[in-house]
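Hi C.,

You asked whether I'd gotten around to modeling the 437-residue construct. I have! Everything is below, sequence then structure, no commentary in between.
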Amino acid sequence: MLVASVAIYLFSSGFRRDDFYNRLENKAISTARLLIEVDEIDADLLKKIEADNPVKLAEERIIILNYKNDTLYTSDEKGEIIIENSLTNSIRLQGEVKYKQDPYEVLGFLYTERYDRFVVIAAATDITGILQLKNLRWILLFVCLTSFLIFSAAGWMFAGRALQPISGVVEQVEDISISSLDLRLDEGNGTDEIARLSRTFNKMLERLEVAFKLQKDFISHASHELRTPLTSINGQLEVLLMKERPNEEYKSAVASVLEDIRNLTDLSNRLLLLAHTASEKQNSGHILKIRCDEILWQVKEELHKYNKEFKINISIGSSVSDSDQMVIKGDEYLIRTAFANLLENACKYSADHSVDVNVEYETECLLISFTDTGIGIPEEDLDQIFEPFHRGSNVNVPGHGIGLSLVSQILKNHNARIEITSSPGHGTTVQLRFPSK
């Protein structure tokens, strides 16, 4: 508003000045033409004509000089307009000079006739224009001050109304705690920025709610799985301490306790590894180029030592034409763990304890398939098979239900994909797709 008012005033002031000088020039040209071009009119007659001229400007002064700077005509009887040689020289050089001599605004220009050139100096006071400009200045000042007051009040009111939804969002957010993650923010009309903010916050709350539920379920299942072997160990030891027993019974009880401790250690290690792989930032220091076929052969030998009945058949497909095609980038320990879990599961759930492993190369992708002829996975369990501690409804082999969730997290960290197809009673096929190096 202030900039607009200043611009209006400056433009109006410029327009007044230009308009006044145009009127002053026209009046001076008319007077000079009468004196110079009309033979019947001399200086005395011209003064009488100008004295009765109704369009005469306020405080008008007109002076006409010849080439010798002699005064041919002047209406400035008192000599109020100061004329110096420097002024007439500037007029002759520049053709026109404008300046202010309080209270007059002065215009000097060169008037040319056929055989001679004259210097015409005209001065007057723009009383009406100055008053109008002064009046405009007061009007703009009043409008500005009034507008500032109105804008301040309106801005305060509308800003309060505009920020009211944000205040509501803040109040709703303050009511949400870890025990009330099911609450959601009001999305209002669903179209403005506040609605977008609320919608984004609600999506974040949904993710947090799911994460906390998974964490709660994980802790519950982990506590249950840890409690079982601990309860078994505690019970067996209490029975042993009740009375003296033969050495054979002690050995049998100790062997059973040792087996429970091994299961407990294996569960703890898997839980720690699952927590490690689930972290958002992995240690990039162990990301190296590794050969998948070499790891498969190494895992085969390790599992064969663990259980002589396991039969692992590894084949390299014809699509693999170069050993470099079996190279991927990853953590060797984690990839070894994933392969070991898949091979062990396949062998455990197959009647003949066998699994076929096939390595193929597709476009920009290394495909590894694990196929068994075991009990398979029911269709209703396929969607939950990667959740920790979830086991198929048809499983009767001891285990903790952590293996596949661990494999899934390891592959996710390596930008790999896992796909499972299964038919109950006919076996399961697990396909891993690693991006090529």
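If it helps when you're writing up: Residues 193-242 form the longest helix (50 residues).

Thanks,
B.
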